[in-house]
Amino acid sequence: MTVRKRRILVLMHETLVPPESLEGYTDKEINEWATEYDVLAGLQKLGHDVYQLAVGDDVHVIREAITEIKPHIVVNQLVHFHGIAQYDQHVVSYLELLGQAYTGCNPKGLTLCRDKALSKMLLAHYGIGVPKFAVYRLKQRITPPDGLKYPMVVKSVAEEASLGITQASVVSNEQRLKERIEFMRDSYAVDVIVEEYIHGRELYVGVIGNRRLISYPVWELPFENLGEGVLPIATERLKWDVNFQKRHKIETHRARDLDPLLERRIGRICKQIYRVLGITGYARIDLRLAEDGSVFVLEANPNPDLKFGEDFAESAEAYGHSYPDLLERILQLGMNYSAQQRRRARA
């Protein structure tokens, strides 16, 4: 891929600004800001002029940096703003109001994907398989959900990164259900979604594009090393605790022994999900493959982790998009995405 040198401003959370070198840091420390480090280093290796901006709760610093640097494109590495997950869509809306090109998903796609209940209702309308679910708002009385069967999984409607998900998130009776909903509300002050637990394989599919979409090879989160009696779910600890991952040999890999027809069908489903939810740029679709071959969507994650060696980058590599190539493609998609404001500016 031909690389055109650009001025690039990378937005990142103020607590995740990486050092210039990895030397002297533990794996656990590096894991905190590895994505930001890899993205910055990757863009620099491509020959771009790269500037970084730490963002907390002040949107004005973004405008000031854009005014000073005049970037060709902003690389958006924010997954929340002011500590609130749903606010990341407003940062992107702000960039569009400024007529600024940016990478990743547009505001509408972020809004639809952040609300797991709303996205599931939309997907179900289009005949895409989703687990049966119910929503409990913060002040809503807790009563047994109609039409749902135990076991059920209790999690936040809007938060990501498996926030609050543990083995105790899977409940098998009304008392445990009530206790877990109350725990999530009290601990995280969130609305809660409860959905039927789908026993099966946990699959991830990367999708990239605006109009023409590419689905990367199906990736899998293995559970076979967790031990007897441990439920196969992606808990917060399993996804983010480096020592836990090493101890249990948790490492995502290309899904094995999938029938080629099934793999192609999964790819088509994920492209359909991407379009239904209005996603642009790139995303990771999380799925469950039930024992009877049914495919269920757990959630769609726009702007997934771009860390080198993470499942999205690894699946891109398996497709034939090296890490530098992946970053450059994401830049080009951001440059080519036409929000109304930018279309008027070019007219």
Strand content: 15-25%
Number of helices: 12
Distance between the termini: 28 Å
Calculate the mean pLDDT score and round it. 90
- Count of all domains: 3
Radius of gyration: 20 Å
CATH architecture term of the largest domain? 2-Layer Sandwich
* CATH class placement of the largest domain: Alpha Beta
What does this structure look like?
- The chain starts with 6 loop residues before the first strand and ends with a helix.
- The strands form 3 sheets. Strands 8, 9, 10, 11, 12 and 13 form a 6-stranded antiparallel β-sheet that branches.
- The chain folds into 3 domains: 98 residues, Rossmann fold, CATH 3.40.50.20; 67 residues, ATP-grasp fold, A domain (Dna Ligase, domain 1, 2-Layer Sandwich), CATH 3.30.1490; 130 residues, ATP-grasp fold, B domain (D-amino Acid Aminotransferase, Chain A, domain 1).
- With 347 residues, the chain is α+β, with helices and mostly antiparallel strands.
- It is built from 12 helices and 13 strands.
Quick structural gist:
By secondary structure, the protein is an alpha+beta fold. The chain has helices at residues 27-45, 60-69, 88-97, 107-114, 116-125, 174-188, 236-240, 242-247, 260-276, 311-319, 323-336, 340-346; strands at residues 7-13, 49-55, 73-76, 133-136, 152-156, 170-171, 192-196, 200-209, 214-215, 219-221, 253-254, 281-290, 295-302.
